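[step 3/7] inverse_fold.run input=structure_tokens len=874
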């Protein structure tokens, strides 16, 4: 049964206060929850109270201090009904018994590597106690935790520490935490274990001191510096840029090694997948450092966008997620190179969100129905949601955007609210009607904007004929025009900007013109010389732009556009066209030659010292094979795409071999530092090395092997190992062994070792992966290991996942089935990799379909997995 947005009704009851007493023991934890309940209003007073549960065992129940009679309530693992509650306020005392040790779903309270921890978003609190487990019920929590002092010397929950001490006459101790800020149950958290602590402090803008702690496994204290530094920078940035101050005496972070997602923003007690905390040069790459910075910021920023102001219901998920992703992107942009950050974010959007938005799992940023909310923590909700917020800023301007944000914080602080309420703040701040803009939240699919341009020298006009459509999708046969802000400039043949005297046919504010109709003609007046439009600068809207420009035009933009994003985009567009052309020839068995001008252009980028190295490394990265598959949209043959990709890469490598040699030979000076500049230099060196690997003979192979041996940091080591393995160079087996020996003690480093092998584009990969699942360093129940080995194969190895014989599909499906009973969220994540199966050529599509059907027919699929498979097949 699906839950629908239009069925929302306010909760008939409120729970103002919650006192939890949690007595921890590995397989028999007792939770006593005292709830202060009252009816929402007189119409609901005295009506039956229905509390949510999930796999719960009730061991005690009192109402107003008296045990409830058997016939006054009904309890199942999934709900607790109080049939005839008093009409005035009352208290309930509910006792449940849990088995954290055997909670393998990693939702609710679980125990991993000896540490107790919780994950409650979205609906995990109901696995701890019966509750109104919905985000619009806000309560003040006081939590008493008891545990054996030796087993769990550290006891943490939300808010501030009120009290702690020994429990006389026992080997146990306790701590009492109080969180003064009313919050929904999904933000509750508890952690207990034997953990090491790294501490620091922060003084807020109004002068209040905050204790900062990061808790990690003993021995990992030295790996927290970067996370702590990122936290302090995030706190300062949110004060400076959004005027947001922290609001408790302490901010705790805990890193755990078994965690389904990236991290969780529980009030005052963020819990992280340890891969987003732990870093040193020996085990973490530059990308890891950047991710840690971004995720720390993301979870911290949730304190205001998510916690102080939360969601009325789960349909509003992007109210907190889209906005918070936007905020963390802006933070990283300020910490690093803005252009490079923007390009990386757009790459991510195009490879993950665009395909989601074009296939059977497409859904609006605010879905209208769901069967399992966990399946909606998607690239669409997160990344496209962030693009919508960015469009607001682009379209309304920085001033109105800031005013709208301030109004939102002022008006809705302490509330559980909706997207409508959020957008209303910007409508008021800007005086603009945002009704049509709202469609971005309600319509699925990536709009396609086609542009035809005509220059009239006599009339001195440039005319753009624009056309926007959203292709039909399952459940959305047609769509209405969206509001599309396009940042633009007109460039003359020297690359100088030409400022039009007047613009007709679209709303224009500064350098942003906004489309809002299916067909639109925009005329720029006073254009006295031929110009080339640079449209969608900075990727100002999440659309697919189809420009009528030719190769020379794009090459011109690639070298002259003042907007670095469009410089990058122009080369990408050309490369995409070229790869599609080459793929066609390869499939037809015809000879094919890469375009010389395009190949030359890459040399221009490589040799342009005015461009920052990180940008050059990105510009030298071709669109991914998945990007090309998505552009093709149907009858996809991953082998042909792969061959085309190789052909173009080789041509570039051959044409510029000397320049690549020089670039690969310029080592990054000084001791390793994870800063953006040094990271960019390493990225360029390793990119150059990658090109050399395509053409080079034994000498290059030796150079790469040497780079592997001599690397003094993980970034360079893993880059070299990837080349050795993916190009099947003679030293690959030796290097794999050496890496395994060196990093056997670091599961996070070993994940990279699994991932390198999982993504090797070779017919031997699948057999190797099957063997690796039996490696003692592999753990088929740890989400990070599964992601490294299975997920990266499914999402990052298109030729082998989509093997013609179906064996790649079968491997992923069987891995999902194997974990589904233990951990449905991880299983359904694996199954989403089937989402583009229909666009494959017939033989492969048939193979995928029969495997999906086989999965679907397996009895006992979790709701999570069943939902994904069902939608993939529909
Ligand atoms: N709110 C968390 C974050 O974005 C993610 C929680 C994911 N939860 C889930 N059930 N998938 O930071
Ligand atoms: Zn989030």
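[step 3/7] decode complete -> sequence:
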């Amino acid at each position: 049964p699906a839950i629908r947005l239009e069925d929302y009704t306010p909760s008939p009851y409120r729970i103002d206060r919650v006192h939890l007493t949690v007595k921890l023991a590995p397989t028999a934890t007792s939770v006593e929850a005292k709830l202060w309940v009252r009816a929402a209003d007189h119409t609901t007073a005295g009506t039956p109270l229905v509390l949510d549960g999930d796999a719960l065992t009730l061991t005690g129940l009192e109402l107003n201090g008296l045990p409830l009679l058997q016939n006054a309530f009904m309890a199942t693992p999934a709900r607790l009904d109080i049939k005839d509650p008093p009409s005035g306020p009352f208290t309930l005392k509910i006792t449940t018994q849990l088995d954290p040790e055997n909670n393998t779903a990693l939702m609710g309270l679980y125990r991993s590597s000896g540490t107790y921890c919780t994950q409650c978003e979205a609906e995990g609190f109901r696995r701890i106690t019966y509750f109104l487990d919905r985000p619009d019920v806000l309560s003040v929590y006081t939590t008493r935790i008891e545990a054996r002092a030796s087993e769990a010397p550290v006891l943490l929950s939300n808010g501030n520490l009120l009290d702690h001490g020994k429990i006389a006459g026992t080997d146990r101790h306790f701590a009492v935490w109080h969180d003064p800020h009313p919050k929904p149950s999904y933000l509750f958290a508890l952690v207990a274990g034997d953990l090491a602590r790294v501490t620091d402090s922060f003084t807020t803008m109004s002068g209040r001191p905050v204790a900062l702690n990061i808790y990690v496994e003993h021995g990992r204290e030295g790996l927290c510096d970067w996370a702590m530094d990122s936290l302090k920078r995030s706190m300062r940035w949110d004060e400076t840029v959004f005027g947001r101050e922290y609001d408790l005496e302490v901010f705790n972070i805990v890193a755990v090694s078994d965690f389904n997602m990236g991290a969780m923003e529980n009030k005052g007690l963020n819990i992280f997948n340890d891969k987003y905390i732990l870093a040193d040069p020996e085990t973490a790459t530059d990308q890891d450092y950047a991710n840690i910075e971004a995720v720390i910021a993301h979870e911290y920023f949730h304190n205001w966008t998510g916690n102080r102001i939360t969601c009325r219901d789960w349909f509003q998920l992007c109210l907190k997620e889209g906005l918070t992703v936007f905020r963390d992107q802006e933070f990283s942009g300020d910490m690093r190179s803005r252009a490079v950050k923007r390009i990386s974010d757009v790459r991510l959007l195009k490879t993950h969100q665009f395909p989601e938005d074009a296939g059977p799992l497409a859904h609006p940023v605010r879905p209208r129905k769901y069967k399992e909310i966990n399946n909606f923590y998607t690239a669409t909700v997160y990344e496209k949601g962030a693009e919508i917020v960015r469009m607001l800023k682009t379209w309304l301007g920085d001033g109105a955007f800031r005013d709208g944000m301030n109004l939102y914080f002022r008006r809705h602080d302490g509330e559980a609210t909706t997207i409508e309420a959020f957008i209303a703040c910007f409508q008021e701040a800007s005086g603009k009607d945002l009704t049509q803009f709202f469609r971005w939240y309600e319509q699925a699919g990536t709009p396609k904007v086609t542009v035809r341009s005509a220059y009239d020298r006599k009339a001195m006009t440039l005319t753009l004929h624009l056309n926007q459509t959203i292709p039909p999708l399952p459940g959305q046969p047609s769509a209405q025009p969206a509001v599309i802000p396009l940042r633009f400039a007109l460039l003359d043949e020297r690359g100088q900007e030409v400022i039009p005297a007047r613009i007709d046919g679209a709303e224009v504010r500064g350098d942003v013109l906004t489309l809002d109709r299916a067909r639109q003609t925009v005329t720029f007046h006073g254009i006295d010389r031929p110009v080339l439009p640079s449209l969608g600068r900075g990727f100002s809207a999440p659309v697919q732009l189809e420009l009528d420009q030719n190769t020379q035009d794009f090459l011109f933009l690639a070298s002259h556009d003042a907007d670095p994003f469009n410089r990058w985009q122009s080369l990408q567009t050309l490369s995409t066209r070229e790869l599609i052309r080459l793929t066609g020839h390869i499939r037809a068995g015809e000879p094919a030659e890469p375009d010389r001008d395009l190949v030359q252009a890459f040399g221009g980028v490589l040799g342009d010292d005015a461009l920052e190295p990180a940008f050059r490394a990105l510009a030298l990265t071709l669109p991914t094979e998945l990007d090309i598959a998505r552009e093709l949209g149907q009858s996809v043959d991953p082998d042909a795409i792969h061959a085309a990709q190789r052909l173009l890469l080789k041509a570039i490598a051959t044409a510029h071999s000397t320049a690549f040699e020089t670039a690969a030979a310029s080592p990054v000076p000084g001791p390793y530092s994870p800063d953006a500049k040094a990271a960019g230099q390493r990225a360029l060196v390793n990119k150059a090395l990658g090109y050399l690997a395509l053409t080079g003979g034994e000498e290059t192979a030796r150079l790469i092997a040497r780079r592997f041996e001599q690397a003094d940091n993980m970034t360079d080591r893993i880059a070299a190992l990837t080349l050795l393995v993916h190009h099947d160079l003679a030293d690959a087996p030796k290097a794999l062994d050496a890496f395994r020996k060196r990093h056997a003690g670091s599961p996070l480093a070993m994940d990279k070792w699994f991932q390198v092998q999982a993504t090797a584009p070779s017919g031997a990969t699948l057999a190797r992966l099957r063997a690796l699942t039996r490696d003692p360093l592999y753990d088929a129940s740890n989400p990070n290991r599964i992601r490294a080995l299975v997920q990266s194969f499914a999402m990052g190895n298109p030729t082998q996942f989509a093997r013609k014989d179906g064996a790649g599909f079968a491997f992923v499906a069987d891995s999902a089935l194997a974990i589904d009973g233990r951990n449905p969220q991880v299983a359904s994540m694996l199954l989403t990799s089937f989402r583009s199966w229909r666009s494959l050529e017939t033989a492969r599509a048939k193979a995928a379909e029969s495997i999906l059907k086989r999965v679907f027919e397996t009895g006992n699929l979790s709701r999570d997995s069943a939902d994904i498979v069902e939608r993939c097949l529909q």
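[step 4/7] annotate
The first strand starts at residue 3 and ends at 4.
Residues 298, 302, 321, 324 surround zinc ion (ligand 2) (CB under 6 Å).
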